[in-house]
Amino acid sequence: MSNPTEPLLGQVALVTGAARGQGRAHAVRLAGQGADIIAIDACAPISGTVTYPAATAEDLTETARLVESAGRKILTRAVDVRDLAAMQQLVADGVAQFGRLDVLVANAGVLSWARLWEMTEEQWDTVVDVNLSGTWRTIRAALPAMIEAGNGGSVVIVSSSAGLKATPGNGHYAASKHGLVALTNTLALEAGEFGIRVNSIHPYSVDTPMIQPDDMMALFGKHPSFLHSFPPVPLKSPNDGQSGFMPVEDVAEVVAWLAGPASVAITGTQVPVDAGALKY
Ligand SMILES: NC(=O)c1ccc[n+]([C@@H]2O[C@H](COP(=O)([O-])OP(=O)(O)OC[C@H]3O[C@@H](n4cnc5c(N)ncnc54)[C@H](O)[C@@H]3O)[C@@H](O)[C@H]2O)c1
Description:
It is a single chain. This protein is α/β, with parallel strands linked by helices. The protein has a single domain (12-270), classed as 3-Layer(aba) Sandwich (Rossmann fold). Helix content is 40%, strand content 14%. It has helices at residues 21-32, 57-69, 84-98, 121-149, 171-191, 213-222, 248-259; strands at residues 12-16, 36-41, 74-78, 103-106, 153-158, 196-203, 270-273. It has a seven-stranded parallel beta sheet with strand order 3-2-1-4-5-6-7, with helices on both faces. The site of nicotinamide-adenine-dinucleotide has 32 residues, from helix 1 and helix 4.
């Protein structure tokens, strides 16, 4: 039986894109469930085509402070998920330090805006390299260690509502996030024999620096019909202040559930974390 208040006690979770936003919330929530944490982030600009501010080394230090104040250990490192060798070294060092790896939250991602026939090659390549290929590289680095540890485990792939529907204005992002569904479901079939579950989550409109309302308004001003694809959510979160966006903590609750024993029978699923928006 697992400990009901700390179901991940004695386990180790790797979270990518953990310097801020959803990734930080996942690291802190999983630590609250008892897990020690391996937290990485690029902590640097990813490309000139990503126009919102980049996460910093100080952001990742703050994640470490929050995990430690939850009473857990953490290994942090500035690593880009596009660098397989660096991800493999990180996993080797994390396993050397903590002894095992049980949970992977592949969360790192980037967003930019343009119509498909107008975007630059760098816009396309950056989004697909980070969101899709970077997630595969994360899996390539982490799964051997999870299998080797022999304890089973849980992989949570952070896709998006844009992984389940069309999102005009960011077709490269939607393509990368749809690709994650294929990655998730294939890995679920391949890793099941090792007791490793694999699911994707599909958040919508979460309150992080990735979402720049002014940029979106400028796009909708130019292409008013695109607005239909980005509706206000039907469900008001009890945790939302006034932003109208989903608090990161609400997403972290779902990640903690998928990481922990309460979802033991769930693998190869797509879990919308959309406050009902996909029903419009
Ligand atoms: N905010 C939303 O509304 C929303 C909705 C659906 C899905 N998502 C997805 O959620 C995930 C987290 O995004 P967020 O909303 O917290 O935004 P965010 O920009 O605050 O966080 C993303 C983090 O990933 C890191 N990162 C980006 N590229 C990286 C790379 N190559 N290597 C390592 N780290 C990298 C960034 O530095 C940043 O800290 C992303 O995959 C995003 O696509 C976000």
